[in-house]
Amino acid sequence: MNFKAILAAVAATAVMSGPVSAQDKSDWPESFTVGTASQGGTYFAYGSGWANYMAEKLGISGGAEITGGPMQNMALVHTGDLNFGLTTLGPARESMEGKSPLAPGMKMDNVCAMFPMYQTPFSITALSGSGIKTIDDIPDGATIGFGPAGSTSDTYFPKMMDTLGVKYERRNGSWSDLAGQLQDGLIDVVAFAAGIPIPAVSQLEVQTDINIIGMNEAQLKKVTDAFPVAAFTIPKTTYKSLEQPSQVVSMWNFAVANCDVSDDLVYQMVKLTMEHNDKMMSIHKAARSSVPENYSKNNVLPWHPGAARWFNENGYEIPADRIHP
């Protein structure tokens, strides 16, 4: 083939590839929104940073929405009110089975997994001056802040406290609001469930002396036997207030999409997220676990076809029966 023929072939290829690219984007939304949770929590920091990153790289408008957290995100993504959201696998399972307190009986089965985020540790924070250093020190009738209504913490932490024999008064609110109430002496304890470091806890320990409370071996066994959680160690370096690693329990989080969102858009989003962990780490340190190897932690949600395409292309096998049709 002579030089002119080569040029003609290259030009023909370029012409052919243009419409394919345009067609791939024809079903993309003009903008997108990611359901996160309350301000002061890891979901909001992680989700808003990820939305900005996607919008910048993909050239479409996108942002985060403050929500009640995983349960509400499942509902909003299922109905299509939001394109994307962040959820924890425990609330995701309850929502898919029609057991969400937000919509009892509605099986939220139009929500698909995109990529693994991180583990949510369940940890307790109290003011040092309270004298509460262990779970057994929490006095009967103590007021405990469990985060936004319907959040992962609000869904599971009260049940965990019941299992451990703690008698308490329940308080809901955003993490930043509950941290302020703790500092002002209006509540006794905040039961946090969020990726670490939790912004509200980091801010608290700058402003006052706090105790970050873990579980002993007997408490760990009771909780892991009763709930879909696993033992987790909060490293000593996570917070200045920790004098040693803290033993707690945790639950996995995944980013999700409405199953009808463009396959190509989800593919591009997963590619940008999974292939650039350094960028994700700059958004939030919890993203150290936002790596493709952790795709196997999802044993609840069907995979979005666009996400499954990226994982299967890169050697992380997702069988056909785990992919949304």
TrEMBL record:
Query: Which keywords are on file for this protein?
Result: Signal
Query: Which InterPro entries does the record associate with it?
Result: TRAP_TAXI (IPR011852)
One Pfam family named in its UniProt record: NMT1_3
Q: Where is the signal peptide?
A: 1-22
User: Which segments does the entry list as coiled coil?
Assistant: none
UniProt superkingdom: Bacteria
SUPFAM superfamilies associated with the record: Periplasmic binding protein-like II
Protein name per UniProt: Immunogenic protein
